[in-house]
Amino acid sequence: MFCFLNLMLAERCTLLSAEILKSQAKYSEAATLLIRMTSEDSDLRSALLLEQAAHCFINMRSPMVRKFAFHMILAGHRFGKADQ
What we know:
There is one protein chain. This protein is mainly alpha-helical. Helix content is 77%, strand content 0%. The protein contains four helices and no strands. The longest helix has 22 residues, at 2-23. The radius of gyration is 13 Å and the shape is flat. Residues 1-18 form the signal peptide.
């Protein structure tokens, strides 16, 4: 019970922190934060985090197109594993 609650609170904190970083145009830090939160526990959650990280890579001042594409493919793979 406590482990699930801690994970849920960590996810919430990560998403809020990433949104704050994105609002300050710190896309690299936001992407790193989102990628570190991915795990093997939930494929759907990891897919969403990877997709958000990919969007951070494409929104940078000098877009990282290859990283964007790579993380979108990873997210698509995780969505597939989650049967979405």
